[in-house]
Amino acid sequence: MQQPLLIDQDLYLIDGFDMNIRKRTSIYVLAKEKLTLIGIGPSPSVPYVQRGLQKLGFHMEEVEYVILTHAHLDHAGGIGLFMQSCPNAKIICHPDAVQYLLQPRKVAAVTRAMYGDNFTDFFDPIRKVYEEDIITKQDGDELDIGIDCTLRFIETPGHMPHHLVIYDKETKRLFTGNSAGIRYEQLAQVGVDFVLPFTPANQFDPEAMKKSLEKLKQLPIKQLCYGHFGVTNEPEKALHQVSNWLDIFIDIGEQAFVRGDTYDDLMKQLQQKVTQDLLKQGIMANDDVYLLINLDLYLSSLGLIDYFQKIEQ
Ligand SMILES: [Zn+2]
């Protein structure tokens, strides 16, 4: 595995190799007085996180907090397995996420439906979490992890109703989970900042996501740290971009739903729009990044059609 990436003094990023893909899912290590992680990834990411912490010189006993932005398995599925190696750690999440952590089969059933035969490779084994290990945080709550580091929790429903982002008041850094979309590090490396909304099934709510993005735009932010993947120092531009694409996704998604299109049809329509945009920025339609983008667009198509089906009922 690679060395954890140094983002700033006392802040590292470990690549969780989610779905065996590089630069897909970020796990952040805040090396403060109280060693804190943000995100853990699915269970297959846990060995990467453990080895990453070892490379940074930490023992598992030193982990004090693991903060989960939301209960989807690609960010939280490995928590039960990880906690087995961290005797002193507490899990921090929104109160409404607790039910999913205690009964991961609830999320697993939906995830299995989305990922099919790949579920075992990408998410197993899913281990139990103990209620006494969980501390809950809601909108406006804070957590001190060091003399110069207080984290504030902000509710940002949309991607999932109980989604929390984490704001570091001193550095004005925001850990976005999935609230501010997916950033493609592969494109950033060739000079193209590109962020798409992530709208998977089955609790996506477009109006809530829009409001959450507006809420984030009110904050003084210097850096966005994405769950997928990496960081940007141009937060305004990135939030603006994801809002624009969200409007496009909702518009195309609604039209597809009205026509009775399949998920695949919708995915292709979104892909066409994205490809047109990226071509203008010099990214060819056969670029490897589409292996990742097309998967995300497929998952987002499921959530868009699911949403329009629900509101019609
Ligand atoms: Zn998610």
TrEMBL record:
Keyword set, alphabetical order: Hydrolase
Annotated ranges, domain Metallo-beta-lactamase: 24-228
GO molecular function, one term: hydrolase activity
Pfam families listed in its UniProt record: Lactamase_B
Gene3D superfamilies associated with the record: Ribonuclease Z/Hydroxyacylglutathione hydrolase-like
The name this protein goes by in its record: MBL fold metallo-hydrolase
